[in-house]
Amino acid sequence: MSERKTGLAVIGLGMASKPHLEALAELAGSIEVTGVFNRGRDKSVHAAASIGCRVFDSIEEIALDPATDGVIVITPPHQRTDIIRLLAAAGKHVLTEKPVERSTAAAREIVETCERARVQLGVVFQHRMRAGARRLAELVAAGELGELCLVRADIPWWRPQSYYDVPGRGSYERDGGGVLISQAIHVLDLMLSLTGPADNVQAFCATTKTHEMESEDFAAAGVRYASGAVGSIVATTATYPGGAESMVIDGTRGTAVLKGGHLSVTWRDGRSEEQGELSGTGGGADPMAFPCDWHRDLIADFADAIRTGRPPLVTGRAALNVHALIDAMVTSSRDGAAAAVERMDF
Q1: Contact 60, 35 (CB under 8 A)
Q2: Is residue 345 part of a domain?
């Protein structure tokens, strides 16, 4: 007898659902989409027809569905706390889009809710799944680069004004902020997974003349890590036409450059290595201009975590670290002084 497929439902069918739905179609051999739910029923009907699943009429119906093992939550951040609380109470595992919530305090509440209910909480930080990022993680873990000395993250992305004209986009009420929590958060999460915790930051955040929006579309910071390494962060959605994000890690034995999904490493003994490819990253006018491969691998990992009982690759508690870093950057910019970064799960 073949093993039962893992049952996953989907809540939220906005722009960010596209790679999720494409990924789920590719994972049909091991994952069954038990149904979809969206506040606008027309989107639910269309998505259900394309996938071949049912339309749920409410989140409560998903919580009561015995075929649903876990739920992918793709709603705006301000809607997640109540949804995840209901799902966790029903014993449903949760894979949520980033950020976990709008603030670190709200994100921590979600993490603790899931921990008390003993359900898995995964977070969609798909940049960790790129081939280049995976290889870089292996090199850092094995100490191949030596001691980390300098880390530079650059996110030169572009969003037209029409992107921020969507009600709530870039607002504190719906999104929790601007470029840091909505775009740069991917690179910053990956960075911290490699460097370990940041100790303090000195930052400057602003809204450029490019956009009319409530929150920041530009942020820059100097960072000191607990390991003694130092570095810089520059993130914006005001650089036309937008380019691939990059991270450079200088170690005592070599330097790694990760640009988009492509990794190049140069060791000081003359060796070199390349891994991955430079594909679309969503850094331009179309935020969804990237393949679904990274989502596919992340969802597959989450489903395996449900089946085996191990934590997913990116846990909710691990995601609190990037929330704390963003908080410190915003605080530093507001106060005009260095700010400490709260320690989370390291």
Answers
A1: no
A2: no
